Amino acid sequence: MKRIFSGIQPTGEIHIGNYIGAIKQWIELTSEYDCIYCVVDYHAITIEYDIEQLRQRTIDTGLILMACGLSPDNCKIFVQSHVPEHTELAWIFNCVTPIGELERMTQFKDKARQHRENINMGLMDYPVLQAADILIYKAGYVPVGEDQVQHIELSREVARKFNNRFSPLFPEPQAILSHAPRILGVDGINKMSKSMNNYIGILEDKDIIWEKLRTAVTDVNRVRRKDPGNPELCNIYTIHRAFSGNENLLEIDKGCRSASIGCIDCKKTLFENMVKELDPIREKAEQLKKNEDYVKDVLMDGAKLCREMAQNTMEEVRTSLGLYRPKIL
Ligand code: TYM
After folding, report:
1. Torsion angles phi and psi, residue 203, rounded to 5
2. Does residue 266 line the site of ligand 1, with CB under 6 A?
3. Closest to 14 (Cα-Cα) out of 112, 162, 145
4. Could you tell me the distance, in angstroms and rounded to a whole number, from the CA of residue 323 to the centre of ligand 1?
């Protein structure tokens, strides 16, 4: 069975960009692939973060993934720092990764601009740890949003460099993009992200979701209600595609182009469909919150299974590198 790996940072709150750009397809893929999903806490410490909150946010991120539909029955789900072999492999990959490749990563450049006071080595090395996350399980496919494609390309290069220099241990992983690989924020300009504060959280109160949707930017060329709009240029329509059925979509496309419906009508339909999909997730999250020990157990069991796999790969890696291995360690 082909193997999938993907990860998410423990920000504690998951937005609809994460959900429709990545998580929705993580769930769909579980029926066909051997899937491993990870809460990447070591990635989260590359920028300033709240030490008091990291622990709870890590558990909450696992909890939300489970509320969305992931479970030990359809995948392995765990916390990155519980399998320390990831960072060990990242060190080894550091020794085959050209610095120039890391310097030209868009995310590194963006984050370095945003965090001028803390441009640390981890920020630059971030994609190497990401390559280690994927390759330690020899995963061939990585479902992500568009912003991660460059990192997956780097993983391919790291695999190639390692395979050529040492032994052909690793596949060259491919990104799998969803139908909505780049969701803009409610500002209609920047990618939806927590740091830009332009996001709609999947567990936010309905009133807040509506308020954010109501004021969200649509097709900027549609100034007055009677102006025809272009759904292709509208972020709200892109979000509609992920939440609404074909019939709704056709109606909205037609109504928008002919100006027979206004943006508020379109947003109301989207809101209804979003709530229909997000309500059961919210309910499941509330149930799981009452039973946090179960969530912790799932994460721990996932880590045990993954650690065994990771340790096997590391033995192969150490042998390929020519390291001295005593019989018992
Ligand atoms: P993170 O936590 O930033 O995002 C998690 C997933 O959500 C996707 N995403 C989006 N998709 C569409 N539109 C958006 N506005 C949007 N915002 C976020 C991201 O592309 C991602 O798929 N580096 C990764 C975490 C990671 C990882 C890995 C991923 C660490 N190791 C190994 C894959 C494989 C990240 O920043 O995720």
Report:
1. -110, 15
2. no
3. 145
4. 34
Which active-site residues does the annotation give?
A: 111, 191, 194
User: Is pTM, for the whole model, over 0.70?
Assistant: yes
Distance between CA atoms of residues 281 and 295, nearest Å? 15
Tell the residue nearest (CA) to atom 4 of ligand 1.
8
**Residue whose tokens read 């610095």:** 99
Q: Report how far residue 35's alpha carbon sits from residue 45's, in angstroms, rounded to the nearest whole number.
A: 25
Closest atom of ligand 1 to CA, residue 180: 12
State the sign of the Cα–Cα–Cα–Cα dihedral 112, 116, 120, 122.
negative
**CA 244 to CA 232: how far, in whole Å?**
16
Q: Given ligand 1 and candidates 147, 150, 158, which is best to mutate, with the most ligand atoms within 8 Å of its CB? A: 147
Q: How far apart are CA 10 and CA 255, in angstroms?
A: 40
Ligand 1 atom, smallest distance to 9 CA: 2
Banded pLDDT at 329 (limits 50, 70, 90): low
- pLDDT at residue 201 tops 90: yes
Domains of the chain, earliest start first: 3-183+292-321 (3.40.50.620), 206-286 (1.10.240.10)
CA 145 to ligand 1 centroid distance, Å = 6
- pLDDT, tens digit, for every residue of 117-173? 999 999 999 999 999 999 999 999 999 999 999 999 999 999 999 999 999 999 999
Q: State whether the beta carbon of 147 lies less than 6 angstroms from ligand 1.
A: yes
Convert the pLDDT of each residue in 226-275 to its tens digit: 999 999 999 999 999 999 999 999 999 999 999 999 999 999 999 999 99
Residue 114: CB atoms within 10 Å: 12
Q: What are phi and psi of 11, to 5 degrees?
A: -85, -10
Q: Tokens in use for 16?
A: 């609809």
- C-beta of residue 112 within 8 angstroms of C-beta of residue 123: yes
